[in-house]
Amino acid sequence: MLDDLTTEDFQTLYTHEMNVQGVSANTVIHYHANICRALRYAVKIKPIVANLPDLVESQKKNNYVVSFYNAEELNQLLAVIRGERIELSVILAAFYGLSRSEVLGLKWSAIDLLNWTISIKHTATSGNLNGRYIEIEKDRTKNKASPRILPLVDTFYELLIRMKE
After folding, report:
1. Per-residue b or e along 12-42, where b marks 16 or more CB atoms closer than 10 Å to that residue's CB
2. Which residue, of 44, 76, 85, 150, is most buried by count of CB atoms within 10 Å of its CB?
């Protein structure tokens, strides 16, 4: 069955995933890498003689363009969420530049009220697994540069003290 595949089959698969399934070029790059890795092993143990996805022209990676709120937009956002459950999360993200997964991964153990610091060392995100919505917590950050210790400013310190009580 693998012997019947062509490079065009893989190119069609990647194009289908992007155009019909709506996945990003970066996701297709990850698919391609995983398929290549699996078939490279198959070549090594000899069920197939060639790793055809290696011959397929790969997608170009999308450049991520950072966008952010200006002062007016941020003030509008803060006015809308004032008093809501997510207020602290949004304020922390806006002030410290934390990602959504970093804010969701914050734990009380990462907040040092004695030394007035917040340690960014956990993340949390969500996804679908076999059609079920799941939350994924990790005791690590996205990359080696992401863990950091940030100073608590007076406003956050007081707010966290009130929340903890």
Report:
1. ebbeebbeeeeeeeebbbebbeebbeebeee
2. 150
